[in-house]
Amino acid sequence: MSAMDWRPALRPDLQRLPPEPGGAGGQVLLDPVLNRRIVLGPASCAMVPLLDGTHPLQQVLAQGAAAPGGGGLQGAERALRAMLLLYLIEGVGQELLERARAVQGGLQPLEPVFLPETRFACQGSGDCCRSTSWGPLTEADVARLEALPIEEHYPYLGPGPYVEQRPMADGTQRPFLRTFGQQCIFQLPDRRCGLQVAFGAEAKPALCRLYPYQQLPTLFGRLIYDRSECATFALSACQGPTLEQDLPRVLALLPPPQELYHPQVLLEDDLPCDYGLFYRLQQALLRALEVPGGGPGGRLLLYAAWLRAFLEGLARVALAPGEPERTLQAVLAAPPPVGEPAGEPGLVALATVAAALRQELLPHQMGVERAGGRRIQPQLMELDEALGAIQALALEGAGGPRAPERLARLRAVAADDPAIDEALRRSLRNQIVSDRALVGDRPRAGLVRAAMVQLVALTRARQLAAGRGAPQVGLGDFNAGHALAVRLLNQERLHRVFVAHEAQALDMAAAVPLVM
Question: How many angstroms separate the first and last alpha carbons of the chain?
């Protein structure tokens, strides 16, 4: 069937709801299969009555184009394209919708899925006991702690309680391990876990025994991935049992999957698509990154090239039967041309993002007022130093002022250790496979964050090596830089920076090799 003969219809199971009170949009469509509400704009509202399978495409579009505030014919086409990409049109996304119905009906279990090569071996640094949130704990965790004779082994901790209630984003209060001096109260002076020393590993809360693994339930399986936050990532992520070998233990500790992760992915502000389409891009990217090598800069060029092809393909997907499947298959059929590192515009964008991150962090660098005066939080200061170096080097590369000599010397510090390159490859894969590939449901913003994580990790590692007069980045330097980048750049308060600069994401990521 040609587009001229196509008579599109809404899925019959969609429910039409009145406008939301106080909302800026019009009619609301409730998708009971994917459990989401879609607020329709003027053009979409005008077209909905004609999307019954009896009106030809041109008549539907003409109705939308005539709607006040609908943006004319171009606005109508874009609105219908969004409905197509969200699987709201009958016959589109059938395979995914059937899977969703099967999962909801309990007919399709969520099998564990994970990246090949994923593994972990604790190196005993004890850093996770000083840098994670230590919660929320399960009821079983709290009951286990209350039953232990903790005071007998550690009199200085007293009779308890050993947990404290903290507010959550949803307004509830949940139990967390108590802390002292920004570390878990059970950490011993030699950095070991006091619970494990006195009572065995089984006494620790489940989240401690799971670290660094995390789960993300999706329609495509129960994703289990490495958060990449370990302070010895270059070693711990390349040693020890594989996740496949360790899976029975991990599954026993994970809570049952709750709400499925299946967002509307914002290709642009007014053009969403179903997560199932973006998921297929993620899988293509992961396959491309399975082969070691390429260097961090080359991998970011590859990431940017795949994302550009995906975004451009879906943004102009034809309004015709067989779409968007036909376009997506064409996009993913072959690797896109990667091209050369970006020049001046990309470097300027990179410097701008670094400056914006520094500005966003500035209020948090001030620390707290104490008897000794103002105290700057060390990690934030380290991140600011790394971002400042990136900003200066990028501006110099774009033809701006020369970077200070101490920063220019960073280029001479080699970072060509194969172990470091492999760690960066694994780190990037872990970000791409998970919900961290999106920031605010935006893939461009996710690319900005991924690029900055890789660049900050290497920049900070070079600063540490240069500080001790070493010509080569060591694994210890890299591990410190990587932990700093992953932990701090994944904070929600920085999301606004990545979103605000997503328009330059592709050029920025392509410029990273010029600074690395």
Answer: 51
- Is the pLDDT assigned to residue 23 strictly greater than 70? no
Helices (H), 336-490: 344-365, 378-397, 405-408, 418-433, 443-467, 475-489
Whole-angstrom distance, CA of residue 92 vs CA of residue 95 = 9
Q: Is the pLDDT of residue 368 over 50?
A: no
**Long-range pairs for 281-290 at CB < 8 Å and ≥24 separation?**
281/306, 281/307, 281/310, 281/332, 281/443, 282/432, 282/433, 282/437, 284/332, 285/432, 286/115, 286/429, 286/432, 286/433, 288/335, 289/425, 289/428, 289/429, 289/432, 290/116
- Right CATH number for 1-108 from 3.40.50.2020, 3.90.930.60, 3.30.70.20, 1.10.10.10? 3.90.930.60
Structure tokens at 6: 């196509």
Please give the DSSP secondary-structure letter assigned to residue 5: G
Q: Give residue 19's identity as a one-letter amino acid code.
A: P
pLDDT at 380 over 90: no
Residue that is written with structure tokens 């390349």 in the block: 238
Q: Which of 162-171, 227-236, 261-270, 392-401 has the lowest mean pLDDT?
A: 162-171
Q: Rounded to 5 degrees, what are φ and ψ at 485?
A: -65, -50
- Stated as kind and residue range, the H or E segment containing 180 is strand 179-180
Q: What is the model's pLDDT at position 113?
A: 95
Sign of the alpha-carbon dihedral angle for 197, 200, 206, 209: positive
> Is 8 a residue whose pLDDT tops 90?
yes
- Selection from 426, 442, 435, 449 nearest residue 512 by Cα: 449
Write down the pLDDT at residue 280. 97
Q: Phi/psi at 290 (nearest 5 deg)?
A: -65, -30
Q: Which residue has the higher pLDDT, 24 or 235?
A: 235
pLDDT band for 335, please (50, 70, 90 cuts): confident
The pTM assigned to this predicted structure is 0.92
Dihedral pair phi/psi, residue 226, rounded to 5°: -85, 125
Hey, what's the torsion of the CAs at 374, 379, 384, 389, to 10 degrees? 130
Answer whether 326's CB lies under 8 Å from 362's CB: no
> Buried b vs exposed e over 489-509: b needs ≥16 C-beta within 10 Å?
bbeeebbebbbebbebbbbbb
Per-residue b/e over 365-386, b at no fewer than 16 CB within 10 Å? Answer: eeeeeeeeeeeeeeebebbbeb
Q: Is residue 21 classed exposed, middle or buried when 0-12, 13-18 and 19+ CB atoms within 10 A define those classes? A: exposed
Enumerate the domain spans of the chain: 1-108, 133-210, 263-516
Axis crossing angle, helix 443-467 with helix 344-365, rounded to the nearest 10: 80
Quote the tokens at residue 170: 């949803």
